[in-house]
Amino acid sequence: MEGKENSRRVISGRPKSFMNTKSALCAGCQHGTAARIICEVIDELGIVGDTIAIGGVGCHSMPLLFAANFDVTTALHGRAPAMGTGVKRGTDGKAVVFTLQGDGDLAAIGIGDLINATVRGEKLTTIFLNNCGYGTTGGQMAPTTLIGQVTTTTPSGRGPGAGGFPIHIAELMAGLPGVVYSARCALNTLAQYKRAKKAVKAAFQKQIDGIGYGFVEILSVCPPLLKLRPTKAREWFEKEMMAEYPLGEFKNVNEPMIQHRIEA
Amino acid sequence: MEKRRKVIEVEINKEYCKACSFCVDSCPKECLVMGDELNSTGYNFPVFINQEDCTGCGACGFLCPDLAIEVFEV
């Protein structure tokens, strides 16, 4: 049996740092794919022993909490960058710390913590999973909900009058001086999967090299929130969500941008 | 002499499958179809039917949200 294992080449196997357990997520939820990308990148960079993951509150941290082969902890709702700061400073910057947060966690309650972590000049990595709503608590409106999208708190669709506008976090992060990498990716095709993996790897590499804050927004789809079958939900994702949120790399620099410095 | 084709094995863990059919949609050669058989949680899982056309791109394995599919080249 061992000879057979050695003779065949793995094209897409389970990453070493992702334990063989059954996923607890809903059918068609792409958070499992996002967790797989993170585990593959950690395996390729060889940082399994040094990595500490900080999960937010929500479905997005479940695959890593249940199946990751490295240290994972959870923070209070939205406070993952603050906890990551403590972990990073407490280990003298030796640990590779990343936060995995959803859109209700990061874009609503935790946006102040995220922005202030970059303002403090922390060298962390944040992976942001955007699925246009609060999935865990039953499908309420989040700041990233699209205009006209029906949720349990916007039964006639989110309108600009009372509901406001969707927030584009990747572009917002690209404008902050402490952030050195910001990108938005999707997971609907194999090409997009490979781009997302490259982006996550770049965001980790910026932290390991000690340059600055790396940020990757991954668009994913939540079929129960949309009340659609997984296949229909993916069609909705390609038609509506990718029209609102353009994909791409918004910032990739090798040193933090300083506008003005007082010379001694 | 005919050039040796690479043989691809697709292993589907039927108990992990939740019938989202992302693997069937992502396959460029239509090598996977959703079967009629049910697993212990009541989902019908995909079946690998077309080994001749499979190119071994691994899209089904990479995009499976439940990591139920593994692709190997023998």
Task: Give your account of this protein's structure.
The complex is a heterodimer of chains A (264) and B (74). Chain A is of the alpha/beta class and 264 residues long. In chain A, 37% of the residues lie in helices and 17% in strands. In chain A, α5 packs across α6. The longest helix of chain A has 19 residues, at 190-208. By secondary structure, chain B is α+β, with helices and mostly antiparallel strands. Helices cover 14% and strands 30% of the residues of chain B. Chain B contains two helices and four strands; from the N terminus they run βαββαβ. The mean pLDDT of chain B is 89. Classes of the chains: A alpha/beta (264), B alpha+beta (74).
Q: What are its keywords?
A:
A: 264 residues, alpha/beta, 10 helices, B: 74 residues, alpha+beta, two-stranded antiparallel sheet, 2 helices, 30% strand
Number of strands of chain B: 4
In the sheet with the most strands of chain B, the strands line up as 1-4
Largest sheet of chain A: 7 strands, mixed
By DSSP (H or I, 4+ residues per run), the number of helices of chain B equals 2
What integer value in Å does the Rg of chain A equal?
Answer: 18 Å
Q: What can be said about the biggest beta sheet of chain B?
A: 2 strands, antiparallel
Please mark out the parts of chain A with pLDDT under 50 across 5 or more consecutive residues, or reply none: none
**Using only CA atoms, what is the Rg of chain B?**
13 Å
* Helical segment count of chain A: 10
What's the β-strand tally of chain A? 8
Low-confidence stretches of chain B: none
Distance between the termini of chain B: 20 Å
Shape descriptor of chain A reads: globular
Overall average pLDDT of chain A: 92
Oligomer: heterodimer
Order of helices and strands of chain A: HEHEHEHEHHEHEHEHHE
Please tell me what the overall shape of chain B is.
elongated
Estimated share of beta-strand residues of chain B: 25-35%
State which percent range the strand residues of chain A make up: 15-25%
